[in-house]
Amino acid sequence: MSIILDIDHVDMEFPTPKGPFTALKDVSLKIAKGEFISLIGHSGCGKSTVLNIVAGLHQATKGGVVLNGKEVSEPGPERAVVFQNHSLLPWLTAYENVELAVKQVFGKKKNKQETKDWIEYNLELVHMDHAMHKRPDEISGGMKQRVGIARALAMQPDILLMDEPFGALDALTRAHMQDSLMEIQNELNNTVIMITHDVDEAVLLSDRIVMMTNGPSATVGEILDVKLERPRSRLELADNPEYNHLRSEVLKFLYEKQRKVENIGSQKKNKKESIQRQEKTAAA
Amino acid sequence: MSTITTPSETPHSQFSEKLKNLFEGSGEWLKTGIISLTGILVFLLIWSVAANNINTSLGAFPGPQSVAGQFQSLYNEHTAERVKEIAFYERQDVRNAKRMAADPTYQPKVRKYTGKETFIDQIGTSLITVASGFILAALIAIPLGIAVGLNKTLNTAINPIIQTFKPVSPLAWLPLVTMVVSALYTTDDPMFAKSFVNSLITVTLCCLWPMLINTSVGVASIEKDLVNVSKVLRLSALTHVRKIVLPASVPMIFTGMRLSLSIAWMVLIAAEMLAQNPGLGKFVWDEFQNGSSESLSRIMAAVLVIGFIGFLLDRGMLQLQRFVSWDKSSEVR
Question: A102: nearest CA in chain B?
Fold first, then answer.
């Protein structure tokens, strides 16, 4: 297995009026070609920051990211991003949205017919060929996200970065999208980093699940290998003991080891402090 | 056989469907029409009652009837003036032809007709002025607004200047504009009249700020994700502006353009009155100075025309905005 992406001792500090805020501390991760990685953790733990650093949209304060032996310093189409809220250009049709990316990435390397075929191939891959001349406001949320994925795939990226791609969708649509993604993954075998909140999604899709500790100074907590056979079917896995074991491992990490204490409000501050005190004694 | 019956049925049912829609649509139109018409009638009633009770030094305040009469006579004056103009050129041609016949070396002189400008001529002048000033302002404000919207430093540098000049009535600029134009615009064969340049610059000055501010706000408030898409695709600066920034801010740019056009039309009339530049404002002022028994009704006619043209300009911009805006879902009013 060849390492395609190396996240090497990354620290991230954000300047705030009260001094620098350390979001990430010493995050290291090596990803092999064709691997599907899920990043899971509570909200605010810096998952998106990791992804943005890999994408080149943020610059790490310390450490760096190496893709195919080259250090990442700016965004680029070889690290295509699928954003959480699709971020399609609302004035372009699905086809035109993909076209913008294809023309920018391939330019004159593809002639007119090849460009057209490539756009249509990618839209077919996400089952959007029937609505490719519709604009984003004419299609559903799930369909928008499909087009967003088609756009990213059409760039033929070395690594596909997905920032909670299905987070804004309802449960049924999300399941459909997960199945579609597995199907595409079977065909293309891309290297993927996906951020998710959803434990089932992580176990179902990933080769490895990277669990992050809570911020500030968040880092990689545990890494879980998912050795379930592919192709996976959500129905068959439902009764699979290994699947359920993996699932409970992730749940344990999230809700026992890294239990998130939400700040509910200042009037409940005392109560919260007492809970924290209890937790400390429990931990000790 | 079924292939024959089907197409003959479909157009028929489509037709009846269309007819139904048309009637339903026209019902809505009819309702709006009746309500608007009632409003206008009530207004005319109040106007004529009020007019009968106001006596000025120039006679009674004009009611709807005398104003309507003035529209007719203003139009008659215009046609009479045109007849005079044609007659003038005919006489001139005949005279020149005669002298040419007598003396073949004679260079014919063509003089322009210098009759007085009619009401309809003044409308044309005002419309041309407002359009030119508006277009000039758009050519300056939109590119500058995009630059300001994209660049925070530039925004910080320019914002105080914009905020200071924005609330200034362009009429305050008028004396300065007049003096600067007469100092700088000195050619023997001017392409445009100085008065036209004065009015145009005044219109431009008042159109500039709403367009500039709206464009820069529109550009600055583009969704961050769309900017990130552009970054991931490594779009060049120019492509970024062309493919992302411009389409995304079109709704805001047009809001600014509509705002400035309605302000421009108001300001232009005032500027023409103040500076005696040709246009509808001058017509109003001349009639006021004239002080005949008909002056007030002629001014009232001009007021109505000014209002109606302003309304048409705004509707025109609205249609244009609807046409170019990608966001058809948002209600544009």
Answer: B233
